[in-house]
Amino acid sequence: MKITELKIYSPSIGQQQEFYSEVLGLKMLDRSVHKVSFQIGNSILRLEYKKDATPYHFAINIPANKDQDALLWLKSKVEILKDGTDEIIDFKAWNAKAIYFYDQDKNIVELIARKNLKNHSDQYFGADQFLEISEIGVATNDIESEYKTLRDVMDIGVYDGGFGNFCAIGDEYGLFICINKNRKKWYPTQDKAYGSD
Fold first, then answer.
1. Cα 154 from chain centre
2. Global pTM?
3. Is 84 left (phi over 0), alpha (psi -120 to 50) or beta?
4. Residue 147 lies in a domain
5. Are 26 and 109 in contact (CB under 8 A)?
6. How far is CA 31 from CA 16, 54, 70, 102, in A?
């Protein structure tokens, strides 16, 4: 599954514009008082103003061999969200390594190097190595219902997990990360998971 465009809401468009364009160095596609959008590899991230917007979680694929380079690059720009002392999280079951950080709205942003994709790069790491948005978190009361809704509109299957607490739906290019918001919080911060708009 490809996530060509992701729209999320933000209470602070100006701060987010500065973060994504100046701190991360992403190409801004358009900007108005109430919205801004950025190119993230093959995907577009759109942020639209909403006064009471709550935080999201989303992930961006990076080349399979660039987790260490991405960490060094990020550490000069943002605070890394750790699991204990681990700055790079090794998801052995997914053959992937991930790094987490907050943007200006406390959205949990993840850079993930998926070894199965064999998309190695010999280029210096920077924002141009962001390949695509590959995950969006969906906090819900009923994971199975969310899955059935998704399956009804697209050819999609369960990648990992089940319908109790956590279910990843899709494939390594695009996943809906569904969690039961009454039983689980966002990893690695344990931030509250809010229902998505």
1. 21
2. 0.96
3. left
4. yes
5. no
6. 11, 21, 27, 22
* Structural domain contains residue 96: yes
CB of 179 closer than 8 Å to CB of 138: yes
Domain residue limits at 154 = 54-180
Contact of 16 with 47, CB cutoff 8 Å: yes
| Residue 73: CATH number of its domain | 3.10.180.10
Q: 8 in a domain, yes or no? A: no
Does the residue 165 lie in any domain? Answer: yes
Q: Confirm if 59 and 133 have CB atoms less than 8 A apart.
A: yes
| DSSP helix, strand, coil percent of the chain (3-state; round to 5) | 20, 40, 40
Distance, in Å, from the CA atom of 152 to the CA atom of 158, rounded to the nearest integer, reads: 13
Q: How many distinct structural domains can be found in the chain?
A: 1
pLDDT, tens digit, for every residue of 44-99? Answer: 999 999 999 999 999 999 999 999 999 999 999 999 999 999 999 999 999 999 99
